[in-house]
Specification:
The protein is built from 7 helices and 2 strands. It has about 190 residues and is mainly alpha-helical. Helix 2 packs antiparallel against helix 5.
Amino acid sequence: MAHLNSEIFMVNRIDNVTTKTGDDGTTSLSDGKRYPKSHERIELVGALDEANSAIGMLLTLLPKKATVDRKFLTRIQSRLFDVGAVVAGGKAGNYWAAETVKVDQEINQLNQALDPLAEFTLPGGNLINAQAHIARTIVRRAERCYWKSEIQDLISAPIGKYLNRISDYLFVISRTYIDEEILWEPYKG
């Protein structure tokens, strides 16, 4: 019964997905302002959304008993929504440095089982490797959008460092799930 009573107090955050207010090429954020869909804030929100979706796809490809901590990847997805919330007009929390440390710890743990990197690796070889690279490159784009933005709450928080580390983590995941890495062969003429 307590479960039912708690549902009474829940507020629907998104009650209508189709508003048609964006049909004119603008969209609104939680700061109450409308922005052209080409605005740098919207570009950043879009890149974060794509990164989140790419990580979601990666999660579906990982084996049930994965070397990678699935809960940690889900945590990253939630943090990407946190970044989007700041972009949309919220305030940056003071937890970004600690979250970056946690990503570093995950990277170090996975790296212990890997050979040193001999050369740049090419994406591919299997679906998990390829999807981890796709997610990595989308996070890199989100990071570039972040640095181009002039949103003071974003720039003053170490969110850029966090995004940078997430892309590193996804690269290490790509290496974790490949039997034989495909190395870059520089052109020799």
